Sodium/potassium-transporting ATPase subunit beta-1-interacting protein
Amino acid sequence: MGCCTGRCTLIFLCTLQLLAALERQVFDFLGYQWAPILANFLHIIIVILGLFGTIQYRPRYIVVYAIWTAIWVTWNIFIICFYLEVGGLSKDSELLTFNISRHQSWWSENGPGCVRKEASMSGIKGLDSHSYISVIGCALEYRYIEVMHSSFQILIALVGFVYACYVVSVFTEEEDSFDFIGGFDPFPLYHVNEKPTNLLFKQTYL
């Protein structure tokens, strides 16, 4: 196939997904978001598998990738609902950290324009010399940054799913047409060995 085909487009989409997932993984590590870290890890592995299947013409790998994109869309819809507090979910809960820690998204303290206010707590034993008080001046609330991340992931995944289905159908048609052309030669070995046999017969006759 040429470069302007669904295969090359799918390669581009997988590469874009891989870069976006790596970027998201870095910020989830910084925020100790263990559930998203595991999900991102699986996503990176399967996107690499889909990329390999697209480059090497392996439709089974692309099918696995297409199935995963549907799961990935569902996961990101859950993340959006979590941060927008839809369906009884709360962005302040410890669900994404498996109740191991009270950490929130890295963007909650390091978003655009955010300024951390700290005060000295030296009079209280057992605490550090500084204690976090509040974050002010954020140009955009952190939950909307997380929602934008998930929305972008959903958009790429949906387009990737469409192109994955298209590429699998093209690969399958090419395999079927190849088998179809090869299947009309009922005696391939007979035709190959026909001339040597006739030559031997003529030599014996002479």
In short: Helices lie at 6-30, 34-55, 59-83, 107-110, 142-182, 188-205. The mean pLDDT is 82.
